[in-house]
Amino acid sequence: MENDNMEEWESAYYLSKKLSRLYEANCEEKKKVQDISKENAKLKQRIKDLENELKGKQKRNKVVVKEGPEADKKLIGVRIANENKSEHELNVIRTLFIKYFESVLPSGHFGVKRIGELDYKPFDEAMKFPKDNQNEALKKWKLWRKCLRDPLWKPFKVVNIQGNLRKLLMRMIIS
Predict the structure, then answer these.
(1) DSSP H or E stretch at residue 158
(2) Which residues form the signal peptide (predicted)?
(3) Count of Cβ atoms closer than 10 Å to residue 120 Cβ
């Protein structure tokens, strides 16, 4: 009988130890949950503060931010209206420039050159006298135009002549 009592005491002792470890683990978990909930509350408060700050800035700048498809459509409409307004302003300025140049230039005729475009007239003028040279002028104009459009083309070649660096114009273009 004493053996039975001892076994009961030992099992009770082990169970109480196990219960105490579980209780401690439970307390630690509760502490972690409390810490997490405190951190969560701090983050929620920070979010509220930032939202209030944003609302204050929007009120000061008189900006109203809306979300959703209706707001997107409204924003697109505003952008299109702004673009149309800018285009109208550019057209007004263009017509003012044209009127100004017509009043300044006696003939009223002026031209606009495009950047990167090569005019054919100088080539034609240079080769005008003999009629056969018009084809030659066209060939040279096409060659120059092709070279000018090539971003890797360099019209000058740097050469070392007796210790001096000199730029030389490429001959294939000129001749």
Answers:
(1) strand 156-161
(2) none
(3) 14
